[in-house]
Amino acid sequence: MSINLDSWRSLPAAQQPEWPDRGALEQVVTKLQGLPPLVFAGECDNLKAELAAVTRGEAFVLQGGDCAETFAGATADAVRNKLKTLLQMAIVLTYAAKVPVVKIGRMAGQFAKPRSKGTETRAGVELPAYRGDMVNGLDFTPEARIPDPERLVQAYHSSAVTLNLIRAFTKGGYADLRQVHAWNQDFVAESPAGKRYEQLAREIDQALAFMRACGADPEEFHTVEFYSSHEALILDYDQALTRIDSRTGLPYDVSAHMVWIGERTRQLGNAHVEFFASIRNPIGVKLGPTTSVDDALALIDKLNPDNEPGRLSFITRMGAPKIRKHLPELVEKVTASGAQVAWICDPMHGNTFEAPSGHKTRRLDDVLDEVAGFFEVHRALGTHPGGIHIEFTGDDVTECVGGGQEIVEGDLALRYETACDPRLNRGQSLDLAFRVAELYRS
Ligand code: PEP
Ligand code: MN
């Protein structure tokens, strides 16, 4: 079988940088093509099998991380804090909701951003928008905002560093269940969510002690499977990291285990959908409130023609006021078509607004309300609420309002550090996990 990975090139591609020098881009692509894979195709297949369990209603996805990772943010502390928060959330879900949790980071590759506006204006000065560290710089200067293809190579190396840390943390003892208290140590005293978590960790300790006394100490208690994902936006990058798997002879994007198509690039007949149809990774597509049933069915036909469970996840991001109105018909008709998809809720991107201070923010209450709506819709239809997709950080930032620590709009300036959209901080993330566990159980 001949495999054509270039078919997207003749189609319109939205949100691609205007590289000033095509020759420089081509050199970078050649360099990337010669670099080792970041993940193995077999690992992508393992994730696909776990997502197939989600599709069958037997597991739950927890996918999250920064809106935009930065090169400067790939430090041991920042990566550990994100991982720790995600592990704590996963523990809450596994223990309180009694469901296996598939853990996927928006990590080790989430370096490119689609923008609704091509430029940004500050104090009367207009410059090209920031498109993620993979493309240009965040600094508000004309030089920083020029797309630089060398950044694609930096994105690869930054992904490699992050993934290496993640692999060491998750396989080297840090993710061992006996660490449930340790993950919380710096957190418990000052926050309601931390205290609530501590109670649960004590119960887990008891259960583990009982299991050990019975002679049971399975491998699953000592390491976790953790997968990487990003929005595959810059097609030159993701194609350069697409390789033919020696076991199967099929192409996999080995820059991450899972990749997704954003709300702004999911047009049928366009380049992103075409490229995604050619790779064999598990993939996601973001679906906003304007998605029609026909759009969803056509995406399924194009992206999962063999109806393979685990291959395709729909990540809905409707907004709290809209989800109960727009989601039911989509889920109902897709289900009636017999299509195998996992339904994941992104309760962040439909709930962004600008605070009076000018900060882009989100209310935790809106996030929780969209998640509640997601569960209501799936419960009413008898379908499986398959997971959540969130933007969070392990640091105590003040980017979203609400939560146990009661961050208000006036606090946003205190620690507003995101390179793009506002993220839940650690306490807000745990608040969300406890709420999701309650919704899952009920
Ligand atoms: C994102 O996930 O950061 C994003 C841009 O989302 P969406 O494509 O849903 O707008
Ligand atoms: Mn975002």
UniProtKB/TrEMBL annotation:
Protein's recorded name: Phospho-2-dehydro-3-deoxyheptonate aldolase
PANTHER family attached to this UniProt entry: PHOSPHO-2-DEHYDRO-3-DEOXYHEPTONATE ALDOLASE, PHOSPHO-2-DEHYDRO-3-DEOXYHEPTONATE ALDOLASE 1, 2
InterPro entries with a match to the protein in the record: Aldolase_TIM, DAHP_synth_2
Highest taxon of source: Bacteria
Protein's GO biological process: amino acid biosynthetic process; aromatic amino acid family biosynthetic process; chorismate biosynthetic process
Pathway membership: Metabolic intermediate biosynthesis; chorismate biosynthesis; chorismate from D-erythrose 4-phosphate and phosphoenolpyruvate: step 1/7
Entry keyword Transferase: yes
Cofactor note: Binds 1 divalent cation per subunit. The enzyme is active with manganese, cobalt or cadmium ions.
One MF annotation (Gene Ontology) recorded for this entry: 3-deoxy-7-phosphoheptulonate synthase activity
Residues in coiled coil: none
Organism: Planobispora longispora
Binding site for Mn(2+): C67, H349, E391, D421
EC numbers for this chain: 2.5.1.54
NCBIfam families: DAHP_synth_II
